[in-house]
Specification:
heterodimer; A: 8-stranded mixed β-sheet; 32% helix; B: alpha/beta; 7-stranded mixed β-sheet; 18 helices; binds thiamine diphosphate; binds iron/sulfur cluster
């Protein structure tokens, strides 16, 4: 780790092919700032991305990185962290990737509580496949595959996380650059699974959950002096309040002990002996 | 008296059949006898017939036979299930006082020993020891010194305190004494002991042991019969070497966790059976395309779907060789004995890292749950070599960066193998993806780069074919025109079958093949033979298909894989060229 790392060091020289104005630009910039601010550099950082417009993020960032299959970035990230706890691991993907095909992994990643950061770029639509309903789409949101709307209530990712025993739940808005970077930074600094749902508008396929919509409806919890992020019931109330969109750290469990600590994982498993371990014959003798 | 002795205990699942059988098998092994065990079990936890069979000899035993000398029957069904194997003079030990065994009929010509197992056990401290009383009775019949049971009773019950061990020893002796005192049969058995030290283990355990020896430190899996023993073996042991076992939420997660571990630089593994392999196949292509070394163990069972989960089959070969969309370079190894499970696991890790590919290890139920004795030297830890392939460090990374200082994780090399930089290596940061990519690992749809990367990945297989010793094991008469080929756990039975055939005056040459892909070229061997028989536990002959396909040499090929469909003019040109090659050749 070096102290003179700047956030642009996390930028690759690949030009993003995101649509101009896509919320993912802001989401990525905030992630890079947060990584630099927390003293990481590209060589000790591992970014795992899912599939989708959002999943392209790994290509536009510079670090050790893995671009997985659709929905399964979280277990890859957990594997990286368990095998080398010295690495800073960040997982990023879309709402379809995380809450639809990957919903099972999401719930288990939350309860596993590996010390990594999960950033979901929630645009409430499938972008890369050109505009179908996502699990966070509104019930009446008309798309190419749901001409009359999905007719099912959207998934509430924060409620899922809370129910699964999350130790850190936050929400941010990609165009509120300062706050977004701050919130991701807090997620990185959290001892355990730091989950951030980022409103990251799709300017091409979603004309409902737009920049204007979020700007008009966003309530920042940091502006509420009485709000205590460690208060489970207060968090539950905000999370279940469908009338507003909240920004900030909604819940943090002070007693979070990350998976690696619970399991005594400290070693970099890349380091192994040249041959079988010295006492390996003991493994054979057990079978006498 | 036959050279080998066959013994079984059978009853209902939950009767402690497995552990009782294991105690006896271990006692025989410690007495310097070779042992081969097999299990009949149903897919349920309580109820349902289950049996543990032990074949033992002073010589190596490698298979099961259709004969039982002594059967401990805890239920009437145990006798019915084994009627085919019981014969004139076979001894059946049963507890005539047990309600279900009252009035049980011993088939003609067989010897029934009615031993009050339960009452004796109760007298010695608890009904739970009734199986141990039966073991004592079996020792009396087999003329096997009961002292040899002592250490395996210690091993099994030592954790529960010395009093329990002592009670069990007494119970065993009471069973022996009961037979000696109440039956005047002269049993014609004499289980000779030797000074040899053997170890007794099954294929799953050998795979786990091989993994630790080979430096595997990260295992992720999801329980499934008959692969779970691999995970259970590693749990509690791998930690002693700084490793970790994680039970994932499903196989999709398991293989992705393992993939993460491997990308972080650990030697990583997962093990499953057919249904799990199906789920893992999605990620398999990513592993191959991102050139991640990973060992995937498929302990096959009867399929398709959930099939017969507790029964043997070798039906997943096609899935391992061809499974996954698109075309995927891979290795598939198939250990042929329990000891080979150890050696092939070590080899699988080396191949995976040297060539940066996923490696399937094709094991099967018959081998996974079969315990076999070996001289401990068969698991020679000093001989384990670890080759991590082309790993770069902070000093050597410069050889593999472009003019901008970017690391070429997928550099196009002559041997197809690129450098690897473990995370943390300065200057080695790069993207790994399942999308087609350039030398830096970045997505590309460039038709030339696509072709170059496909060729590069396939070149690894060619390189391995040249560099690795693709050896197979041969038995029987090398000059015979009768060629038998098998793979996987059939080796032991086939080796013994050769002896039966010899007695009938039939010579065979037997090749036991531990490599499925790539594999040694048997085309000439096959063409030279008169009759070629491929032995495998499946319906369609999947390995036979592959070998026939090898031997078929008449088809020439025109291929295109740069992402663009065939065009008529180009096709005409290609075909002309291919035809003219044939003319000049
Ligand atoms: C197994 C599989 N199924 C389907 C797809 C096609 N697919 C690619 S991206 C995507 C949805 C992406 O939506 P989201 O995660 O919300 O990301 P966004 O593009 O909106 O950022 C789908 C269905 C795939 N790549 N793999
Ligand atoms: S389609 Fe939507 S999500 Fe995808 S790049 Fe364009 S704006 Fe962004």
């Amino acid at each position: 780790m070096s102290s003179d790392v700047r956030f642009t060091d996390f930028k690759s020289d690949k030009q993003p092919t995101w649509c101009p104005g896509c919320g993912d630009f802001g989401t990525m910039n905030g992630m890079m700032k947060a990584l630099a601010n927390t003293g990481n550099d590209p060589d000790n950082t591992f970014v795992v991305a899912g599939i989708g417009c959002s999943g392209k993020i790994g290509t536009y960032m510079h670090s050790y990185a893995m671009h997985g299959v659709h929905g399964r970035a979280l277990p890859v990230g957990a594997g990286v962290k368990m095998a080398n706890p010295d690495l800073e691991v960040m997982v990023a993907g879309g709402d379809g990737d995380g809450y639809s095909i990957g919903a099972g992994h999401f719930v288990h990643a939350v309860r596993r509580n590996v010390d990594m950061t999960y950033v979901v770029m929630d645009n409430r639509i499938y972008g890369l496949t050109k505009g179908q309903a996502s699990p966070t789409s509104r019930e009446d949101f008309e798309t190419s595959t749901t001409p009359e709307g999905p007719k099912q209530p959207p998934v509430n990712p924060m409620a899922l996380a809370l129910a699964a025993g999350a130790t850190f739940i936050a929400q941010s808005f990609s165009s509120d650059a300062m706050r977004h970077a701050e919130i991701v930074q807090e997620a990185i600094e959290h001892d355990g699974f730091g989950f951030v749902n980022v409103f990251s508008p799709c300017v091409t396929f979603n004309d409902v959950d737009t920049y204007d919509y979020f700007r008009d409806n966003l309530v920042d919890l940091a502006e509420d002096d009485d709000y205590d992020r460690h208060d489970y019931n207060a968090a539950k109330d905000r999370i279940l309040d469908a009338s507003k969109e909240y920004q900030g750290v909604i819940y943090q469990n002070e007693n979070s002990v990350p998976y690696e600590k619970q399991h005594g994982l400290t070693e970099n498993m890349a380091e192994i002996p040249d041959g079988a371990p010295d006492d390996a014959m003991d493994l054979v003798r057990e079978f006498y | 008296m036959p050279a080998d002795f066959n013994w079984a205990i059978g009853g209902e699942a939950g009767d402690g059949i497995d552990s009782t059988g294991k105690i006896f098998a271990q006692a025989l092994s410690r007495a310097g006898r070779h042992v081969f065990t097999s299990k009949d079990f149903a897919s349920r936890i309580r109820g349902g017939y289950t049996a543990y069979k032990v074949r033992t000899s002073v010589d190596q035993v490698q298979s099961v036979v259709d004969r039982l000398d002594v059967l401990i029957a805890l239920t009437p069904r145990t006798i019915e299930e084994n009627l085919d194997e019981l014969q004139e003079g076979s001894v059946i030990v049963y507890d005539g006082e047990r309600t279900t065994m009252q009035g049980v009929e011993i088939p003609e010509g067989m010897i029934g020993l009615d031993v009050p197992l339960q009452s004796i056990a109760e007298e010695k401290g608890g009904a739970i020891m009734r199986n141990v009383v039966a073991l004592g009775a079996a020792c009396a019949v087999a003329n096997f010194p009961i002292e040899h049971l002592d250490s395996s009773l210690e091993k099994r019950f030592g954790g529960k305190g010395q009093a329990i061990v002592d009670n069990n020893r007494k119970a065993a002796r009471a069973g022996r004494d009961y037979v000696d005192e109440n039956f005047d049969h002269e049993f014609d058995y004499d289980l000779e002991t030797t000074d040899n030290d053997y170890v007794l283990l099954n294929g799953d355990e050998a795979i786990g042991m091989g993994a630790i020896a080979a430096g595997c430190r990260f295992y992720a899996g999801y329980p499934i019969t008959p692969a779970t023993d691999v995970m259970e073996y590693l749990t509690g042991r791998i930690e002693q070497y700084g490793g970790h076992v994680v039970q994932a939420e499903d196989e999709l997660a398991a293989i992705n966790l393992a993939l993460g571990g491997a990308r972080a630089g650990a030697r990583a593994m997962t093990a499953t059976s057919g249904p799990g392999i199906d789920l893992m196949t999605e990620t398999f292509g990513l592993i191959a395309t991102s050139e991640t070394p990973l060992v995937i163990v498929d302990v096959m069972r009867s399929g398709p779907s959930t099939g017969m989960p507790t029964k043997q089959e070798q039906g997943d070969l096609n899935q391992m060789v061809y499974g996954g969309h698109g075309e995927i370079p891979r290795f598939t190894l198939a250990p042929t004995t329990v000891a080979e499970c150890f050696h092939k696991t070590v080899e699988a890790f080396n191949l995976a890292e040297k060539y940066q590919t996923p490696v399937y290890l094709a094991a099967d139920l018959a081998m996974a749950v079969t315990e076999q004795t070996f001289a401990p030297e068969e698991f020679d830890m000093d001989a384990v070599e670890i080759d991590r392939g082309k790993v770069v460090d902070d000093d050597t990374i410069g050889e593999w960066t472009n003019e901008k200082g970017q690391f070429k994780a997928h550099a196009l090399t002559d041997d197809g193998v690129s450098p690897r930089s473990f995370p943390g290596t300065a200057g080695g940061a790069h993207m790994s993806t399942g999308l087609e990519h350039d030398e830096l690992g970045r997505r590309t749809e460039d038709t030339d780069m696509r072709v170059e990367q496909v060729d590069k990945r396939n070149r690894k297989v060619e390189t391995a074919q040249e560099r690795e010793p693709w050896e197979y094991r041969e038995f029987g008469d090398a000059d015979s025109g009768n060629l038998v080929i098998s793979w996987g756990s059939n080796e032991g039975a086939m080796v013994e079958a050769i002896e039966f055939l010899e007695e009938e005056g039939i010579d065979v040459r037997f090749i036991s093949m531990p490599y499925i892909f790539p594999r040694p070229d048997l085309t000439e061997t096959i063409n030279d033979a008169d009759d070629v028989i491929v032995v495998e536990c499946n319906n369609t002959g999947q390995f036979a298909d592959i070998l026939e396909h090898d031997a078929l040499t008449r088809v020439k090929r025109v291929n295109k894989y740069n992402g663009v469909r065939f065009k008529a003019d180009e096709l005409a040109e290609e075909i002309k060229e291919t035809l003219s090659q044939e003319i000049t050749a």
